[in-house]
Specification:
3 copies of one chain form a homotrimer. Chain A has about 425 residues and is an alpha/beta fold. Chain A has helices spanning about 1-10, 20-30, 95-100, 130-135, 180-200, 220-235, 260-275, 290, 325-345, 375-390, 395-400, 405-420, and strands at about 40-45, 50, 50-55, 55-65, 70-75, 90-95, 105, 125, 140-150, 155-160, 170-175, 210-215, 235-240, 250-255, 275-280, 300-305, 350, 420-425. The mean pLDDT of chain A is about 95. The interface of A and B includes residues 371, 376 and 401 of A.
Chain lengths: ~425, ~425, ~425
């Protein structure tokens, strides 16, 4: 799978994504090769979404700075970080001092270009490495941005659904608004799309899975203003998929609820499958979980990441590029999300129909016929399930109390369901 | 007391106990010298108990293996571990390879004989030390077991009651089915019997005490199938008495409830009287707490042990013998159980009848008449009892909050009850 | 402020305070220069208060011991600790052995004079340093105490109120019964009085503040017997002010409730403003919190101290003197109490009126217009308040969850209230 992921990465990398614009349309078109049922929706600029308004569409064709010898010192065509996102058009000759006043750099990371946007205040500007800016001499610079803020444009979003036995939904939400960013952008849409593909292969999915591709903040606010009530009714667990492509340990940021099914399943899987990982309580900064977990919605949405935004020095710079991520790690991130879904799909409060003393497992082939030392390991999954399946404990509770691995418990559940000793009880929804 | 315990140990040690049989009858007869009111009951083979059936009675007279020179290389009369429990009869000459296929050893503890049973699948077999098996040469071996599985036999259990003021019961349950095992068998019946004797001496026992001597698993399942409803109504605390004879630190395994009176009293006593001890959450392996704490019963039954089954290398081998245990430790185990019962008997939610400010203790002789330094230690038990006796906190709560030793609190309770400042409130039952 | 505190300290230090007497009257008269609205009340000796009786008034004019050469070896006029509190009159010549039998010393702190009282048993006696007692030779000693236990006297207490918008009250209770003690006496009345002065300067106090100056134990019992029901209705938080004058770290002793507003506000302020501090669970020894937190009242009264009574070796000795305390520390203690009151006054469950997704803060000037790195710190107070203000979390909850300093949160609350996004919800009373 990792080679295929890499191919898509290479195609998506150079495209200029933003809140709006053709780059976003092209990105969704490419992803729909994987996410077959992706539905693309256009929301007109000016649309009201709660306290917000969909901004004009940003259209940009060309941008550069030339020195007096006509040499391009930076070119948007080479790296789309060179222009501040949502820059208005300009065509002007300026001196070095003026250039400095409209150029953002990172003095503490002098080799990297920063990623800067100005969505809601009209301005123009450029970004470059601090080293480059320092090397510039007094000169006349020609700055040129051929862009437009089109108030008759629209914002593009993508939505796909994989139906399951139940109408209850599991949500994966990712964003498509950062230009050339690797972990803090493309890891999200890529993991989300390939998860679609993997889930498609699983028969008898219990739950319905929803996949959202949105520009960050305004996209999720807009989606929630249209479909928030639907999510409130159906959502049992959700994840904002971002920053999931590097080599770092997994990080799980909890939903605002703190003990939602999304949280409990993720924590169990990380605890039982990873040596080192981080669990972080919800905080109201970060990505679109800010909107899903706003107090009016308070949805069960967390975020399984690797190294979190804001933590790594390459974050929001040109350093968050292909070298920073790892396609094997990306593939393992997909597997980790699948493991979490497996736990959620099996997470019932089972009921032991033979609750008075233990059933005689030996005559059912579920217990060794000879007693001696070392019995414990073989049978502990079964014994825990029988003892705890009183209709009050679900799979996650039992895995946490027993420290028996969820995969072993799931195998034992299948056997005990087949023998008729266990039946499925409530799933909490 | 410890010399008397040792005498009984020596008489009980050589007897062959199993799920059924004359060894069990003889064991109960000897114990009834101490437990005067012991009632012995025979449950016919074939009796249905929930999902289980009482097995045929195992009768064994003689068993050995002879080499071609007629020498007995092992003899059941010398060590009853040499025969797999519930072995069917056999009388046959076999070669070394065949002998190996029916003989259990412990390659990693080559000097010890394992303890092995096959209650529910008919087979025969022998146990010996791995060293002995390795030393055997190619030869013709005569194997002989004079045993019978008698389907008209019965299983023998013992039940004794010491009545108290209340019909509410405290249960001690121990097993009598392992042959020559010291800590993992005889420590249990011996501590249980001598506890009977000690409790008999206490006047005004508040609660009724019940003492059960049962073969493990099938015995408790059978007892619960007959009297489980009675226990469910009356039991306030219970303990499975096993593995309580060695020099190790105390280990308390909690009941499934996790905060039952049995658990709270044991934890308090260990915390306030022992430097090193272990508290273990309930897990559904182990001894008869598996049945008492099955989800249909969920009784408040834990287990105060020293070194737990499965933990020590001598467990279920010939190494769990008289050398492994210590009669002074056994006597102290009895005292520890008595301390727990003392806490339970005093565990009321007392009510302070003078709850507005402090009563003037000085004029009642309960407070020093001169104020200065160092008052705290003298009066803290009294002060805690007065402050916390609002009908919501019981003795155990107050001891835990205050860190004042339960013996000091109990003395102060007696004084404050006498003065009329405290009265007895609810005992929670 | 600290110089002014020191001046009052020097005036109050030499006065002989006890449960009753002119020393207490003089102390309250001096304090009423600061606490303008202080009302002084006389409770006649013999008055019944719950289980207690107001003792006779202790009047003492003069006391000394002279040796046979007529030299005063100790003199009450020099240090009022030399006489056991409430000593009855005596005028007698005795030998050294008799002198020793009526003299208290501290053999383990031989240079210090102990502080000893005998309020409820009539006796007389002296205190001196152990070194002095050891140096005395066989001689005839003239002991003289010119005192009286006046059954027609009275006990003097002081009570002041600063009214706020609400009738709900915050209580400060301190004691005035120890003679020349610095941290364990005068730090209390001084901090309490200067807090009165500081609170007086604050406009729009939400709550009413009550200041009590009482002899310890009998004073608070007497006050509660008269006004306890009033406190029960109105009190939202209270503090016993004592041992707050030394250089030690702050110590907060919780109310019996353990999570009262008094406790939560103090813990938050210490956690967010101090590197090292102690939080201690309630225990029913100590000062007047014993009475306020007796089970019949169970008021939300804790105690913010520095080094607690009983902990420091100078406690209840002549070593607890001006050298032991620090006037800068005293001033900081006052500021710490004021910070706690600030938190209490702002402690509402605010309600976000725009709970669906985030409001667009940028257009209100509450969010930077350019996106990039390092946004988090600037806006996290606001983001936490918006996310958590669902009517279930109060300021203290949000400060604890977010680790954002309460001062920043309070600033942000003011801005968000002004913008109309937040409104005040419940204050829990």
């Amino acid at each position: 799978m990792k080679n295929q992921i890499e191919k898509y990465f290479d195609r998506l990398w150079p495209i200029n994504r933003s809140l709006t614009g053709d780059g976003n349309r092209e990105t969704l078109k490419i992803l729909s090769e994987i996410v077959k049922s992706l539905e693309i929706q256009e929301i007109p600029s000016g649309t009201k979404c709660f306290d917000w308004t969909v901004p004009p569409e940003w259209k940009i064709k060309e941008a550069w700075i030339r020195n007096s010898r006509g040499e391009k010192i930076i070119d948007f065509a080479e790296n789309n970080l060179h222009v501040i996102g949502y820059s208005t058009p300009i065509n002007k000759k300026i001196n070095l001092e003026e250039l400095k006043s409209i150029t953002k750099t990172l003095p503490e990371q002098p080799g990297l270009i920063p990623y800067v946007t100005s969505y809601y205040k009209e301005r123009y500007g450029f970004c470059m490495s601090h080293n480059q800016l320092e090397s510039l001499k007094e000169d006349t610079y020609h700055i040129f941005i051929d862009s437009q803020l089109d108030y008759d444009g629209s914002m593009t979003i993508g939505d796909a659904v994989l139906k399951g036995e139940s109408k209850k939904e599991i949500l994966l939400s990712t964003y498509i608004c950062h230009p050339s960013m690797a972990s803090n952008e493309l890891s999200g849409p890529l993991v989300t799309s390939f998860l679609y593909n993997e889930l498609l292969k699983i028969k008898n999915r219990k739950y319905t899975y929803r996949f959202l591709f949105l520009p960050e903040t305004i996209g999720s606010i807009c989606y929630l203003s249209m479909y928030g009530d639907n999510l409130k009714q159906k959502l049992i667990a959700g994840y904002v998929v971002t920053c999931i492509g590097d080599n770092g340990n997994f990080t799980y940021k909890k939903s605002r609820m703190g003990n939602s099914l999304a949280d409990r399943a993720s924590e169990l899987v990380l605890k039982q499958s990873e040596k080192n990982y981080n669990i972080i309580d919800f905080f109201p900064m970060g990505s679109d979980e800010r909107q899903y977990c706003s107090p009016g919605f308070n949805l069960p949405v967390g975020s399984l990441m690797r190294t979190m935004y804001g933590i790594y020095p390459e974050y929001h710079t040109s350093g968050d590029n292909k070298d920073f991520i790892n396609f094997e790690a990306l593939e393992n991130s997909i597997k980790k999300y699948l493991d979490i879904f497996k736990v959620i799909e099996y997470n019932f409060k089972y009921i032991n129909k033979m609750p008075y003393c233990e059933p005689q497992l030996g005559k059912r082939g579920l217990y060794p016929t000879m007693g001696g030392k070392g019995l414990k390991k073989i049978i502990e999954g079964t014994m825990w399930l029988l003892n705890q399946s009183d209709g009050k404990n679900d799979l996650i509770d039992i895995a946490n109390k027993s420290n028996v691995n969820y995969n072993i418990l799931i195998d034992n559940i299948d056997k005990l369901l087949k023998s008729g000793i266990l039946i499925k009880g409530n799933s909490n929804f």
